[in-house]
Write a structure and sequence with these properties.
Chain lengths: 221, 293
């Protein structure tokens, strides 16, 4: 907006589902989403534009000696089949599983890349945002959860586990070797026009991608 | 005479619409919740909704059982009442009968200020202070439990119960107490057997108000109970309440979907629970009043 003083962009929060619903209703022009469009949403004329990459990192408390897990071990933990840290090389402590509310985009990515076809255990404590999740795991040495890669830097007492031997970094997310990664989208109704088009183009441009990196996400390869 | 009659009539005409507005508002809200929630029963049977033990609205296939949620709401409310009712009544007795007037003048407004604190502040306090406290005191893997929810709710509804009970106890006619003392009863015996029973209807009203607030409380409970939709077999496990389910999931559901209707159906359940509780309360109070006559 500094570069274009006559244009104003208003940003509202709410989550992937909220934005897409608003787009369908016509109460917004661009919806940011951390998940792909569903078929019924595509049928309403919505189009997704890939603008960045995000990795969903499995996190534990820094006091936990465990450094890595296989995808299968993660699945078993979140299913509720593995319940003690000693079963995966950690101390004899009961595991506390944190998950996101089932309507979150981060949850959907985690579910599709890690859990399918099974569900996260009903015993998992639900958190309403990445921030809350990071805070919960940083405060509980028994805890295990998941956050977007951008949140790793923001919370102090958490660490990301290597999954199948791969740590979540810019390179591993861009080249696809980190297994739990996803695209972030900007969604428009039909092809974007006018200011909406300018904005989406800006985000895809090198200047926009630099901001993507500054915010802790991964720029498009 | 003509002038007086006209004044009376216009008074009624002017005030009646304002009174009806509030009743109509509640009625329309109820109608809205009902119409948004009923479509759920085109997709699943009421039996399935009410008696299914699993709440998993976004799974394939989705499951909309409210039992864990109803039990979650009930257990934190029950715990809150167990803690706050004795404390509230005893505190009210202290303030009304035992404390000297200066202390009473100081404490009563202070307690009423407590009831004005926003619930999210209570929730934050619960998250940052109570949750680790419960976790460490009881050696639990996590402090986000039904107990923590019950405690924070108890703190929230205590001012209401205490304040209203105190009003009720102070309003007991002095002659009752004097008659009891004159018959030779001690002060405590008087309080126990005469004053409190005499104030019973007011105390009950205070408890009902507190209960209503406890059932409807959303944010504070959301932040400390863990939100896991499991059947609570112990107060040391996390639970998920009806209200927090609506608050946490409504923002992300697709308008008009089955999940959307299910959340409104939870609203219907809450409405019905509140209706039942309130009518039980009113009947209790009427009966108490009837007995005294």
């Amino acid at each position: 907006m500094d570069a274009h003083p006559n244009d104003s962009i208003i940003v509202e929060g709410g989550g992937s589902g909220v934005g897409i619903a608003a787009l369908i209703d016509g109460t917004c022009d661009v919806a940011n989403s951390s998940r792909k469009l569903k078929d019924e949403e595509k049928q309403k004329g919505l189009i997704e534009h890939e603008i960045a990459l995000d990795a969903v990192c499995v996190i534990v408390n820094v006091s936990n000696p465990v450094e890595e897990l296989t995808l299968e071990q993660v699945q078993k933990i979140f299913k509720g089949e593995t319940t003690n840290w000693s079963e995966v090389g950690g101390p004899n402590l009961e595991m506390v599983v944190y998950t996101r509310e089932s309507t979150s985009g981060t949850y959907e990515t985690f579910e599709s890349k890690v859990m399918k076809p099974d569900n996260v255990t009903l015993n998992a404590l639900t958190k309403s945002s990445n921030g809350e999740m990071a805070q919960a795991v940083s405060g509980n040495r028994n805890g295990i959860g998941y956050v977007g890669i951008g949140y790793l830097a923001r919370a102090s007492d958490i660490k990301a586990l290597k999954i199948n031997g791969v740590a979540p970094t810019t390179e591993t997310v861009q080249n696809g070797t980190f297994p739990i990664s996803r695209f972030l989208y900007m969604i428009t109704k039909g092809q974007p026009e006018g200011l909406a088009k300018d904005f989406v183009d800006f985000v895809k441009s090198p200047a926009g991608q630099k901001i993507v990196e500054e915010q802790g996400f991964v720029k498009m390869p | 005479m003509k002038g007086k009659i006209r004044l009376k009539l216009s008074g009624k005409v002017l005030t009646a619409p304002f009174a009806s507005v509030s009743i109509l508002a509640v009625f329309f809200i109820f109608l809205f919740v009902f119409t948004q929630g009923l479509p759920l029963f085109n997709q699943i049977s009421p039996f399935d909704f009410l008696f299914n033990l699993t709440w998993r609205p976004t799974a394939t296939p989705p499951s909309f059982g409210v039992i864990p949620l109803i039990l979650g709401s009930l257990i934190v409310t029950l715990l809150a009442l167990l803690i706050s009712v004795p404390l509230g009544i005893l505190g009210a007795v202290y303030l009304a009968e035992i404390a000297n007037p200066k202390i009473r003048e100081l404490l009563k407004p202070a307690i009423e200020v407590l009831s004005g604190i926003p619930s999210v502040v209570y929730g934050f306090f619960g998250l940052v202070v109570l949750v680790p406290l419960v976790q460490n005191t009881f050696g639990l893997p996590t402090g986000e439990t039904a107990l923590t929810g019950g405690i924070i709710l108890a703190i929230m509804i205590l001012p209401t119960i205490l304040s209203i009970s105190e009003d009720a106890i102070s309003s007991v006619p002095v002659d009752y107490k004097e008659a009891s003392l004159a018959l030779g009863a001690t002060k405590w015996r008087t309080i126990k057997s005469v004053t409190i029973p005499a104030a019973a209807s007011g105390i009950t009203a205070g408890i009902i108000l507190g209960l209503g607030r406890a059932i409807g409380e959303t944010i504070a409970v959301m932040m400390v109970t863990g939100g896991a939709p499991i059947i609570p077999t112990s107060i040391f496990y996390p639970v998920r309440t009806l209200t927090q389910t609506i608050a946490a999931e409504m923002g992300e559901t697709v308008f008009g979907s089955t999940h959307y209707s299910a959340l409104f159906a939870i609203g219907i359940v809450l409405f019905i629970m509140t209706l039942i509780l309130n009518s039980v309360a009113i009947r209790l109070i009427k009966r108490k009043n009837g007995e005294r006559r």
